[in-house]
Amino acid sequence: MFLNCHSFHSLRYGTLSVEELVLQAHSLGIKELVLTDINTITAIYDFKKECEKVGIKPIAGIEVRKDNRLLYIAIAKEFSGIGEVNKVLTDYNCNGSELSEVAPVFENVFVVYPIDNIPLKLKENEFIGVQEEQLNLLIRPELNRLVSKMVVLHPITFNTKKEYNLHRILRAIDNNTLLSKLSEQDICGKSEYFKSEDLIIEAFQRYPEIIKNTKKLLHACSFEFDFEKVKNKQYYTKSKESDVKLLRRLAYLGLKKRYGKDHEIAKIRVEKELKVIDELNFCSYFLITWDIVRYSNRMGFMHVGRGSGANSIVSYCIGITDICPLELDLYFERFLNLNRKSPPDFDIDWSWQNRDTILEYIFNRYGKDHVAFCGTNVEFKYKSRFREVGKAFGLPKDELDDLTKKPMEVHETNSVVQTIHKYVRLIERFPNQRSMHACGILISEEPITNYSTLEMPPKGFPIVQFDMNVAEDIKLEKFDILSQRGLGTIKDTVELIKKTRGIDVDIRDTRISKDEEKANEYLAIGRTIGCFYIESPAMRGLLRRLKCDNYRILVAASSIIRPGVAQSGMMREYIFRHNHPNQFEYFHSVFEENLKETYGIMVYQEDVIKIAQYFGGLSLADGDILRRAMSGKGRSIKKLQEVKANFFKKCREKGHSEALTIEAFRQIESFAGYSFCKAHSASYAVESYQSLYLKVYYPLEFMVSVINNQGGFYRTEVYIHEAKMSGGNVQVPCVNSSEFQTTLKDKIIFLGLMLLEGLETRIAHGIVDEREKNGDYKSLQDFIKRIPIGIETIQTLIFIGAFRFTGKQKNELLVEARVLLVNFKPENRGLMLIEEPVQEFKLPELKRENFEDAFDEIELIGFPVSCSPFDLLQTKYRGSVFVNDLLKFHKKQVKMLAYLIARKHVPTKKGEMYFGTWIDANGDYFDTAHFPDSLKQYGFQGGGCYLLLGIVEVDYHFPTITIHKMAKMPMIPDPRYSYDKEKQYDIHRQIKEDVSMTSRQPYPQIHEIELPRFTFDKK
Fold this sequence. Notes:
- It contains 39 helices and 22 strands.
- It starts with 17 loop residues before the first helix and ends in a 10-residue tail after the last helix.
- By secondary structure, it is α/β, with parallel strands linked by helices.
- It is globular and about 95 Å long.
- 41% of the residues lie in helices and 14% in strands.
- α21 (551-560) packs across α29 (678-697) and α27 (637-653) packs antiparallel against α28 (658-672).
- Among the domains are: 240-366, no CATH class; 371-486, no CATH class; 502-686, no CATH class; 714-861, DNA polymerase, domain 1 (Orthogonal Bundle), CATH 1.10.150; 873-996, CATH 2.40.50.140.
- The longest helix has 20 residues, at 240-259.
- Its EC number is 2.7.7.7.
- It catalyses: DNA(n) + a 2'-deoxyribonucleoside 5'-triphosphate = DNA(n+1) + diphosphate.
- Pfam families: DNA_pol3_alpha, DNA_pol3_finger, HHH_6, PHP.
């Protein structure tokens, strides 16, 4: 009887999750259920699984609406019917086609019209839905004669009265209106909740034909769907055989290129992998990825193949990855094994500048009917829940701001706020909108609309209506096409070096991108600001603690810096063992033989597999099952128990004592959920090393590229500081010398117009384009004549110094600009400027204070360029100790003056603490620790310079200052407002800092790690 059920995937309409919907139906003994969410199939696959768990027959459908008006309900006779409706809605969503009032001709779909939208003629598969409260309308002759084409329509939208009110709130949110202003057309009927089928039949007893039609319709429908059949594109060529043949040929061509003619070990590995790839029918997945990478190479783009795909020698040979799995002892089974049914997972990164070109190629090459982005369901976030529910109740903006900024515990306790709390809690897990997955691309064998309606988000690439978890469930696996700014930086640096120095740098040459003497020196001292993945304060500190001077240690560092790894205690233990290789014993000889590179610690996921295999006697494939069972979405108590039992059984067979086996499994259990894929770390490390090499030998080109790619851990000011430290002469923007982006000429760096916060992108590009067409600007008047621009923008350019080529003072230029633009009308631009020469004024000479320019720069780009922040302090004191000498002051108190770069919030068991990153007056970086007790009295007061007092703690070559006291140092008053005392300190509040927050659990202390430093038998 229930042909029209809504879940909460009918966005901002339904109030029931799929699980709640099915369980309610089951509790009432309902045996058939139709899910018809509004214009979406998001939940049908989960719905099928949930129904089958409790013995309900699932039927899939879609409620088709236009502008919030119900046109008809489409119910699939069989699964192919869903594809028919998907095509109609996809044309509406993506191609601008109109949704007609009458359903198109469907082959495998029943159509149910509401009683207020009955077409002139009903097709055989079309019916009219009648609700219980509409039965009295059937006395009308025009309706009574249609009873033979009627079915019971009892929509389901909510559960209880409270949820009916929730539905109304969701409708108010959707309509951006107040609850009191909702009309009847905006909301569902008050009876749209489950009741027993007996009550419904009783209500319709005068019309047995309607009940019969309804049952007949339900009986005629089915929802058969093979979850196990792979839906991805089956063949790259025309058949599996030709795919296998092509992949083999490509692998052997790459084998010769990567390893030479006679590398027997590599050849054996290639053969082994090809066999598994063939058996698992994954050839097309490899070849499609190869094809995308081949196109990228043809376009001259850089890419990084990372993730577990780098465990494969075949992917290395055909150019998907650049990590040699033999060099790093990477296990193919971590990537693919015969127990794995889902396709492999390649993560491919491109520069953020090139990714859209790659995406366009994929859509064009594989057909727009077969390619789409994976979707995501974006839930109501904490702030939006309060803001949206509060708006529905009519709260003013200031009260809404108060609710969103404070935790619930400290909100007011009045009745309105308490009511808002009630509904805020109810929508906590509700989806609010569908969006695009960050990187997941689906390429299907059949048209992708067979599985989903497509939507077109603002980005311009179509998305399916389900997320990656559903995609994986239905065996429609994604290709991860990612973007990042680090690759853009590397690419731009290489191009800039060619332009400025005429040097071609082959950044993929492993002699310079993995092991280079000077780059290794920079690594060991953490001189890595701007370098991909290794520039954060934590990473630079780790590199120094390890004295990391080679690629292999960098790979390990890239893994152990991960939050989960550090949280497991591995990072601290690894640092200890690396620095004291003679102060520990290996737990067991197997650990020494197989984990010597990581001092007996399971740093990588591959290490877990090694110990499972060599200590526990499990196969490589079973070892990977163990790893997956202990971590991520593969976690399964039942599966874990099975592999644990097998592990203990095999250990007994190998003669290990019970106590030894228990301790070994405890270590596996402790680390499996935290360890990181070695291939992933190795891929990251290569890119880190490539960027480091460029920083070492071409620092100005590198820093300019970092600035232009707007990427990195820090704000632009820090990278400009780095450029200055490397000998760059940094100049503020100039209309005759600057481009849109930052540029390098010899050692002069002209900051780009894009850095001016008050300058529109369109105007910035226009300034450059006009200059390139018609030459440099000769004067301010010439500039205004050629660029359509208002007085406010002109002032921005004048204040930043963009007209300094004229030789005139800023105040003189301002007067000139105002005269030129007085009573200005765009249509008179040419007339005014040509016929009315600027009146020459003899201005009294106005002396500009030394630091007026610096304050202009802070206001317009956020930091001073023409001087150091230290120059703007009232004090001449610069500290008693400098960074260069910190190692000499272990356990001693120091007093330093420093400029705040960044601080990171870190939770501890005693309260919040911060780690700070600073530069001293010489421009060198150092780090501080601020514990809860100190912060209570001496907290951070925003960006600027501070006087610091604390104790130096040297931890494995890396000094940190534990701060006891600190005070923000006053800057000189803003000389531009010497006449206005109140404004003299306004600009000081614009001095920036980088603040990062984390909500993770506190890291364990060294005594909590419990990793034995002795051979087990010697306990």
